[in-house]
Amino acid sequence: MSNNVVEAILGSKDIAIAEMAKAGVSFGHRASKWNPQMKPFLKGTRGAVHIIDLEQTFDRFFKALNFIADLIKEDKTILFVGTRSHARQVTEKMAKEIGMPYIVERWMGGTFTNFSVIAKRLEYFRELEKKIASGELDKYTKKERLLFLKELQYLTKKWGGLKDLTKLPEAIFVVDAVHDKLAIKEAKAKGVKVVALCDSNADPNQIDYPIPANDDAVSSLNYIFGKIIEVVKKVKNDKSVVKE
């Protein structure tokens, strides 16, 4: 099923490449900042800026989308990581739309490698939220209730995207493989599969499913995320139809 879903959503290679070009997916970083490991995915330079080979992008994105579709089919979890300022809003919006956890603030060291501690913190977060919502904390003084509310606001900002995560996800999707290299390192250490955009300054060898693409332009992110949303929703819809 996955291949058919992705084929239907991406369309023909020519159409997809035209859409990616329009979205600016092909523009890499300045040639002076490149990572030689990305050479197979580049087709030259334009104005001292590396140009990503969209033929390669299509092929790699196709594989990544099939992997994502298979995870969704099996009710697995993907954590989306986009902590740079331009990526935060679009990452959070996309993750919420498909019901997946996300991190858009700084990646906290130990999020994966010390997850047992993080899990306890998240459990406390969920319990505090329930207690405030149910009025259970009304027995405290006004000052004490205010402190609880401030703590909830802090936890929401720091861990809001992870609130419902009770175990390690099966995969992470990283918007910037260089900026969030610690997330990738921890995922690899814990056996969590990594899907990531790889701009011309990244090392694709560290990624299970690298997608050669511009990770700076919001238009590029919107194209990538838009296709992910379509695939996830299509797979979920097909699953619900089968159950009925």
Written overview of the protein:
- With 244 residues, this protein is an alpha/beta fold.
- Helix content is 51%, strand content 14%.
- The protein contains eight helices and eight strands; from the N terminus they run ααβββαβαβααβαββα.
- Helix 1 packs across helix 3 (54-73), helix 1 crosses helix 8 (218-243) and helix 4 (85-97) packs parallel to helix 8 (218-243).
- The longest helix is centred in the C-terminal third of the chain and has 26 residues, at 218-243.
- It is globular.
- It starts with a helix and ends with a helix.
- The mean pLDDT is 93.
Core attributes:
244 residues, alpha/beta, three-stranded antiparallel beta sheet, 8 helices, 8 strands
Largest sheet: 5 strands, parallel
SS-based class? alpha/beta
Characterize the overall form: globular
SS strand fraction = 5-15%
**Backbone CA Rg:** 20 Å
The stretches of 5 or more residues where confidence is low (pLDDT under 50) are none
The mean pLDDT is 93
Give the CA-CA distance, first to last residue: 17 Å
Tell me how many strands there are: 8
Helix content: 40-55%
Enumerate how many helices there are, as a single number.
Answer: 8
- Name the strands of the widest sheet in spatial order: 5-4-6-7-8
Order of helices and strands: HHEEEHEHEHHEHEEH
